[in-house]
Amino acid sequence: MGLTGIQIFKLLPKKNCKECGQPTCLAFAMQLAQGKTELSKCPYVSDEAKAKLAEASEPPIRGVVIGTGDEQYKIGEELVLYRHDKTFFNPPLIGVLFKDTEDDATIDARLKNFNEVSFERVGYILKAHLAVVKNESGDAGKFTALLQKIKDNTKKPIMAMSDDVAALEQAAGILKGTKGVLYAATEENYEKLVDIAKANELSLVLKAPIEKVAELTPKIVEKGFKDIILDTEARDAKTMFQHNTFVRRLALKKKDKAYGFPTCNLIYEMTDDEIKEATIAALAIAKYGGIIVISDCKPEVILPLAIQRLNIYTDPQRPMVVEQGIYPINEPDENSPVIVTTNFALTYFIVAAAIEASRVPTWLVIMDVEGMSVLTAWSAGKFVADAIAPFIKKVGIADKIKHRKIIIPGYVAQISGELQEELGEDWEVVIGTREAADIPAFLKEYVAKNQ
Ligand code: SF4
Asked: Which residue owns the Cα nearest ligand 1 atom 3?
């Protein structure tokens, strides 16, 4: 169990010097106990106290890194039960199952989908993340052959799944250097599998009934291994929901280190119905899943799951923004129209997509209004004439065009007169469309009139 604030306080130097950013040592101790600060911020902690406090200064849920390079992900290290309290940090990995009983043609087609199904939304790539290779046949040769084939044909990380320790040992050799995952250690075999995972720098799923986890994870940690992921053997939606919630609450509220690990949910074992599977996977994304394994990588399943994953793991207190600046779309030149709008990411992507669809070369000028949409920024006094005019003069769009016309969103038509005044006689303010969907027609007509 983690230490309480008072227990931590007893180990601190009690100088009350404020160098840690807290008014007193007691305040620092309380923050540390809640995982809201780091021990390294106090320069006066003795080595002896450091060793005792190390446990308390660790995140309440272990962060486990999976994969390498562009396909490296971290799961765990969450600090809150509810995203409105702070935010969720490390989204779950969507794993796709491959079985060594499937024929080559099926594996090839599914592997192609696994590698290629992806969608871009507001600048993020939505896709599946983890190949889960299962030794369904019981034949270690078939299993390792499939594992090798998948490893050779994807950059994404792999979880090797077998009941056979010897097969997993061979799998670990294949996955060495990939930061993949072994599934699964059990009460019977964990000692051997921990050694294998350690030697090959892989993480390890512990498969055990939820009440056994408290007994087994400390034993694994004692062996010097912490990259543990928990499969609490929930095999229906309700039990999974309960177990994931118990694990998160025990780790965060009770500071129970034995449960301070990310979870693994085998959704494909919970139902044969594709729609139910997607629904349960969505539940796991919303409620504390770490690795979520589904049976296939169909676009119509991956898209909604990945959107949900993105939405739930976006900080609710920080709007999604794009950088202020000039964005050339469709290779504009000095005669191309100029559209100005705000840096709310959704506004940018919708407007940019509409301009792209129009095929009209256009300069899109994005103004930083702290991520607000057009109307919200206008009502907050941030997207108004006396803010837009100096921005337009400063941003450098005048150096890229011969004309002096800017198109503003139709929703702020009321500022056109004042903006005209602020910009001066050289400029002409044109009122654009209210809806992005009308931009293509508007731009085509605008260009025809202005040529
Ligand atoms: S820096 Fe250390 S000694 Fe100083 S107030 Fe913070 S906890 Fe106390």
From this structure: 15
**Ligand 1 site, residue 40, Cβ cutoff 6 A:** no
Non-local CB neighbours of 3 within 8 Å, separated by 6+ positions = 33, 52, 53, 55, 56, 255
Q: Is 20 in the pocket of ligand 1 (CB under 6 A)?
A: yes
CA–CA separation, 127 and 195 (whole Å): 32
Q: What is the dihedral of CA 39, 59, 215, 212, to 10 degrees?
A: 170
Residue 317: pLDDT band with limits 50, 70, 90: confident
**Distance between CA 305 and CA 285 in Å, rounded?**
8
pLDDT at 56 over 70: no
Q: What is the pLDDT of residue 356?
A: 94
- Residue with CA at minimum distance from ligand 1 atom 8: 25
Q: Tell me: domain 325-450, CATH 3.40.50.11600, correct?
A: yes
64-312 is a CATH 3.20.20.20 domain: yes
Mean pLDDT of 367-390: 95
Q: Where are the domains of the chain?
A: 5-57, 64-312, 325-450
For residue 1, is pLDDT > 70?
no
Q: Is the pLDDT assigned to residue 57 strictly greater than 70? A: no
| DSSP tag of 410 | G
What one-letter code names the amino acid at 318?
R
CATH number of 5-57: 1.10.15.40
The tokens for 70 are 């562009």
- Scanning the structure block, which residue is given the tokens 């227990």? 7
Which DSSP letter does residue 25 get?
A: H
30 token code pair: 């309380």
- When the pLDDT of each residue in the chain is averaged and rounded to a whole number, the result is 94
CA angle at 74 for the pair 313 and 252, rounded to the nearest 5°: 70
321 CB neighbour count, 10 Å cutoff:
18
Residue of 9, 14, 25, 30 to mutate, ligand 1, most atoms within 8 A of C-beta? 25
Q: What is the pTM of this model?
A: 0.75
CB 344 within 8 A of CB 373: yes
Residue 318 is predicted with a pLDDT of 73
The DSSP result for 77-117, as a single string, is: ----SSTTTS---SPPEEEEEEETTS-HHHHHHHHHHHHH-
Q: Which residue has the tokens 């100029």?
A: 338
